[in-house]
Each structure stands twice: as C-alpha cells, then as structure tokens.
Amino acid sequence: GTSLHCNQRRYLDDSIALAFTMYSNEEEEDGPKSTFETYLAEGEKLSSKAYYQKALEAITMALELKPGDRVALVARSKVYLQMGENKKAFEDAELSLKNDKEFVKGLFAKAEAQYAMGHFEHALMHYHRGNKLRPELEEFRLGIQKASEAIDNCIGERAAIKLENTGDLSFFAAQEEHGKKSKGGIKGRKFGGPQPVVQSNRAKVPVKPRNSKTIKQLLGELYADREYLEKLMTDTDFVHSHRNPAVYDLVNSGLNYLDSRSAFWQQQQPMYARKRERELRKWKPAQRKPKKKEGPDPAVLILRCLEEIEDALDVGNAEESLEKAKTCMATVKSYTESELPAKQDIIGQLHGCMGNAFMDLGRLEEARSHFEQDLQIAITQQNLDAKSRAYDNLGRVHAKAGNYHKAVESWTEKLPLSKTALEKTWLYHEIGRCHLEMGNYDDAHDFGEKALAAAHEAKDQVWELNSSVLIAQAEVKMDDLAAAVESFERSQRLAQLSGDKRAEEAIRKALDDLNAKMVQSVNIDSSGEGEAEGEAEGEAEVEGNLNGYEGEAESVTGEGYSDKETREELNDEKE
Asked: Is residue 492 a contact partner of residue 549, using CB atoms and an 8 Å limit?
C-alpha cells in the first residue's frame, strides 16, 4: 500500500512538471497566457518538488507580467540558490530591496546568497539587520549562528593564535631601513596617483581543494558520485561522442557543482578547523550523554502550540485559544529545565496568552490573575521584554475594569521599558485618557501634549490625531474654550491629512457645538443666569459628538497588541 501511494505521488509530481512543460512551450511562441499569481504559485509548487528549471521558467514568466515584483524576485532567488547560481540569486535578492531596504524576505534572501557565495561577513551583517527588524523569526537567529561559526572556522579562534617576538628579526629591520632611504620619507610619496589596494585576509573566491583526500573528507557520501562523473569525463569515447551532447553537459555541470560545493565547504569549515575540533574532542573528558526522549523537539512543539493559540485568538475564538493554552501549559511543565532551557519564560508567556483569552471572554479578574503571574515570572527571570508585556496587559485589564488609578500605575511602570517613540505615544495617550476619566484634567492635558510630541517624533499622523483630540477634550473640561477650538481645528487638519472621514466629521460637529457653547457663554455672562446648566449642556454635546470617534480609537489602541505585534505593525494595522 505504501509503495502504491509513493508511485501515485511520483506520478502526480511528474504530471505537474509535464503539464507546465506543455503550456510553457506554447507560450514561448505567443507569450504568457496566464496571470501573474498563477505563474508564481506554479513556480513555488515546482520548486518545492525540486523541479528547479521549470520553477525558474514559471517565476520568470510571472516577472514578465509584473516586472520588479519583490515577492517573485525573492522566489526566483531561492530557486537560483538551489541550482547553485549564487550570483544570480544575489542579484535578484538585491533587486527585491531596491524600493524598500527593510523588506525582511529580501534581506534573508540576500544574506543566504552571500553565505552561499562565501561572503560570510556580509551575510552575517544582513542576518543581524533582519533579526533587528523581526527578532521573532528563527531563520535570522540560525543565520547569525551559522555565519558566525563559518567566520570562526575560517580565521580560527584568537586564543589559538599566539604571536611571539622571537628569532632573528634583523632582516626585517634592514628592509625597513632600505625602504625609508629609497622613498625618502614623505617627500617620496606621490599623491593623487593610484594607491596600493589592501587585500582582505580572507579570499573572496573559494579556493579549490588541493587533493583527493581533502575532497573526500569534504564531500563525504557524494565523493563516490564525483568519482563516477570524473571517470566519465576522462573517457575519450564519451567526451568525443556527439550523439549525447545534453548528457555531456549534465555530467560537466554536475562535476562543476560538486567542485564548487567542496570549495565552499572548505572555506566554511577548513580542514585545520576540523582537525582542531578533533583534537579538542580528544582531550575533553568523556561525558555520558543523557538519553533523549522520543518524540519531536520540545522547542519546535511549543512554538507550534503558541502559534495556534495566537491564531485562535486572532480569529475571535477565545475559548479555543484558552483550551490550547492550558494544554500547552501542561506540556511545558512536563519538561525539565535541561530539556527546555526557556521553560519559565514560556510559562510566563502562556499566562499572558491565557489572560488575553479571559479578557476577550469578559472574565477580567481571572485575566488580571494570569497577567500578575506573568509579571512575577518576568521579574524573577529578569526578562525586561516580558516585564514590559506584563505591565502593558495589566494596564489594559485595569482600564477595562474601570480601575483607572491601577491602570496608570501599570503603564507608568512600563514607560522606562519602552523602546520606540510610537510605543511611548500609545502609553502617554492611554495614561492621559485614564486621567481624563478620573477628572484629573490638568494631568490629562499634560500627557496629551507628551503623546503629541512623541507621535510627531515617530512621524505618525494617526497618533498625532488621537493625541490632539485628547488635548482638546481636556481643554473643554478645563473650560479653556479658545484653546480647545485651536486643538480641534488642528485635529481636523490631521484627520484630513490621514484621510479619516469619520474622525473629520465627528470633529466638525464637536467644533460646531463648541462654537455654539462659546456664544451661549457670552449670552449667559451678559444675562448672569443659568451659567452652570448651560456649561454642562455644552460639554455634553461636545462629548456626545466625539463618542463614536473615541470608541474607534479605543478599539484600535486597547486590545493587547504587545503580545503579537511590534509597534510598527500596530501602526500599519491602525492605518
């Protein structure tokens, strides 16, 4: 049954390649007949089945329909990399970054191409850039590790290199003296002419292995294949035969590929580095390795569980998310610290996930309990990112419960842990709104100004708008109507710039009511009657017109983004 299934699967894969061959041959005459998305999907499917040449043709057709598409360029770069065309892979990755230097997939493709070319330092630099932009992605961390190891293998460890000032150095002293006399010091130096180029201490092009023993060690099981191909190339009847030129080209390209790979592997981990590792292992005391538990890697299993928990919460299924979090918590607790080094940090993160699920279910007290457990673990582990997450969640649950004083305390603790201007904008704004709810209008106004300054620094018009509205609301409550009119007019301009029609309409109505209130205040002052009642009605009308806009702002800024998204991604979501 298994054999039959494998044969059916192989037949299906061959059918895919054959189908693509048939319609690609037709399109060579008349041009592309399908859509960009179809060609790109077909190319990625063929690449996953290791039909790289057909995948390359499909993705190239997709790029003919949409030249310069960065997703397609990255896909073709991956195919080139699989085919051993490292330079072409690098060129496509570079093109994908033309308009956006922080395109994460393009950065990774560029780093992979540079690593394959043997440019380990440049690869390491781009792995670090990608890791800085998206620290949660494992591929960048693995890239940093493998590039660092390759560099260490090439240059050796500093501790293993000891330079000694011994022996007869008179030859070098004589050479230096001779050089001074011939050059005549600084006067003998010609400026403006070509200067000698300083060569790097690491070759840019991999050096081919020198002997068969080295090649055998590098290729391992592939060495037998290389021997076979090499014998074919030395067979005069095969070389001079014109009956099978395609076969000859395949044998030649295969041999070249194996040679380039062995040269790359030698540069990645030279023979002297391997020898040094063997010597170190020889001198290290033998240690009994603990028996591994059967089953998948715990880290991979837990990561998959966390993704499923967040996905369930994203689609609004809080109960499913909660059940998955409880199951995952039991699994994590079953592992030892040696099997899962980050056990405590993961438990804290799971408490945060469970708290978010309870919040969505309206069970605020249980949510608060889990967020506090997350905070205690973060403090014990001295994990600043986890502390920031826990204080953020505690502030949200307190604010949702109407406990604004506690919310302010939590968010104030989070402020020193903020890393970006946009994150500070959100915190200043939420603290200001809490003060507005508590009747601390001066504090609300001050935090609104701080939020506006931080939003201006972050160049975020949406948060400038939110902060400006908060300032205007505080000024209405402080009865500084002239200043409130100016703040609302500024808010209206920001709403127009950001294209927020709903906010623009709400602010226009609030301005109309505010102007009416100012006229009413003038009439009341002249008559001296009904002052308190008129002010209360005016404030109620202004607040009523902003209710819809405030609700929208709260839904954008309030719901637990810190567990899943960076501050920049939150900004994109708001827009």
From this structure: no
Print burial letters for 528-552: b (CB count within 10 Å at least 16), e (below 16): eeeeeeebeebbebbeebbeebbeb
Write the single-letter amino acid at 25: N
Is-contact 348 383, C-beta < 8 A? yes
Please report, as a single letter, which amino acid is at residue 551.
G
> What is the b/e burial string over 474-499, where b = at least 16 CB atoms within 10 angstroms of the residue's CB?
bbbbeebbebbbebbebbbebbeebe
Distances (CA, A) of 223 to 231, 233, 268, 287, 511: 12, 15, 18, 33, 80
pLDDT at site 362: 93
Structure tokens at 271: 């023979």
Helix, strand, or coil here: 295? Answer: coil
Identity of the amino acid at 251: V
pTM of the model: 0.46
pLDDT tier at 552, thresholds 50, 70, 90? very low
- What is the arithmetic mean of pLDDT over 351-362? 93
Residue 297: the pLDDT is: 75
CA distance 409 to 100: 39
Digit-coded pLDDT (tens) for 108-132? 999 999 988 888 889 889 989 998 8
